[in-house]
Amino acid sequence: METTTSALDIPVNYILGRCTFGNWDDDDEPTTTTLSVLNVCYVVKERVGPWWKGACLRRIRHKLVLRDACMHLKSGQLTAVLGGSGSGKTSLLDCIAQRADGTVSGKVYFNNMECTPDIAQIYMSYVMQADRLLPNLTVRETLRYSAQLRLPGNASNFDIEEKVSKVIIEMGLRHVAESRIGGGIVRGISGGEKRRVTIAIQLLQNPKILLLDEPTSGLDSFTARSLIASLQTLAHQSGKIVLLTIHQPRSEIFKMFDKVALLSRGQMVYFGEASQMVAYFSQLNYRCPTYTNPADYFIDLASVDRRDNERQGETEERLRVLVEAYGNSMLHKDVVYEIIEDTMKPSTGRQILAQKINHFRPQNSSFFRSLFTLLRRMTLNVFRDRTSYLSRMFLLSLFVPFICIFLGHLGTNQTSVQDRIGLLYQSSQVPAFVAALNAIGLFPVLRDLYYRECRDGLYSATTFLLAYLLHILPFTIFSTATFCSVVYWVTGLQPQSENFLHYSAIILFLHLFGEIMSVLLMGAFMNPALATSNASIILSASGLMASGFLRNVEKMIPIFQWAAWGNIFKYAGEILAANEFHNLQLTCGINGTFCLPNGDSYLKLVYPDAVENMTRNFWAVTGFTSATFLCVIVVFKIRGIPNLS
């Protein structure tokens, strides 16, 4: 039996040394690593059907995704988990990485020590199936910003650049290092190169174990072979454990694997040397035909055919026989014996490692460093895309010509009262809607990247959302300043500078509120279309019922009156009305017709206390905007990270 060095036997001075960047690459750490999976079962809850058909009222069903999975891996090995769709491949990786959302039983061991989320976060990197990359950054910039988030706070710029250059060379990305990632309508690197960038990001923290979920998905056969060859080299030369799931590897790829696990319906059909797989199944009288890809043959052999009841019964019986045969085989017994033997070895450093584990986490970057790294990355990404930054800066200004041409210069006659009301209503609604559109168009890509990086423990929801708020603030100020400067003076509202500043401040807060509200909805709903429809309903209904421009709030039914008190548009509408109509002198027309001599007369009819409550209303608008932002943070924390697998 090969001896292994436990992570718990690491000297104390080495553990303390991990706190410095000089030891971050673990050059002095024992190179032998073991990963053991012992009798892991995984159960998830599921409801059948959509909620509008009553699924939320039905009894929750429990589904067994994995059953008694056992594996024993050593450093320097490339291991593949094979199986058809729904066989439990990704769920197995989730359990190993301590990211499973359901109920997990059994044990996962890292170097004889029971694996915890903290240990998994330090020593494992998980490359998920989808590439979550910002399209307008170059490969080097993507890796640089990720390194600034992943590496310790005392890492210098030179250390970071050295690390970035190392993984670029390691993953064969030198020829595209200065090319943009691309995506959508932005031309960039190929799909295989994006996959390499995603893997390179996870290699920045030099993990002992690299987990990859379907790394060849969506790639052509040559690119897939090239990628697996790179992973094979990585495992053999660096001594890492590389564990990946793969659906249908070609025969040349299959030969690259050191070990193979075959899953079907969450049950282990085979785990052992890839070179011994054909011989093992031959002993069970399932000989792989000549010139047939072994991976394809054995995946088909372990799959259940559901085309009709007869075929389903036959294939289910065959699967039962295969699972039972493997469970009784010496292969399986040897794996269990190795795991038990390893875990029974004495480990003297367990308590010391537990005490020091928080001191050398890879995400041990300071709050402010993470905040400003995220801010710089967001800003660079948006400025590289002309459509994005022009939309943020000038989309609101597109409404200016229509408003100015439609209304012209407002006079002081009686009809100007109605024109002013319409202008103020549009001024309160348009900025919020435009901001919501900007958020729904530009925020999802940042949100998806946040989900991946938060899963890796790089920063919190608070850090991400504060960075986003600081990112949008200059655009919001510029956009609203441009809108207000033209609309206010061209239409001839109150000429005092104080009134203009009050008007601009309210438009700024409403613009911020619209964006923050949309972000809140995108935190609650993964589907941007669902967030869009909800944002439209909330903003339009709020402005319609609570602003007071279309109907006096005091004349509404009681439930709407009470609801208005909890609506930002009520307070914003009162401020805009008081700001414009207070001390406004109006001219009367033909004698005998109803006449408002001044704007204060209008305020007494619709907003009787608006002038006296100006200060209170300003604080209310500020408070509603701030409270909505706090609600966004709470929603993101409660919602958690969805299972991106």
TrEMBL record:
Electron transport recorded as keyword: no
ABC transporter domain: residues covered: 35-290
UniProtKB keywords: ATP-binding, Membrane, Nucleotide-binding, Transmembrane, Transmembrane helix, Transport
Family annotation (InterPro entries): AAA+_ATPase, ABC2_TM, ABC_transporter-like_ATP-bd, ABC_transporter-like_CS, ABCG_dom, ABCG_transporters, P-loop_NTPase
Cell compartment(s), UniProt: Membrane
Lipid bilayer topology: Multi-pass membrane protein
Annotated protein name in UniProt: ABC transporter domain-containing protein
Organism per entry: Dreissena polymorpha
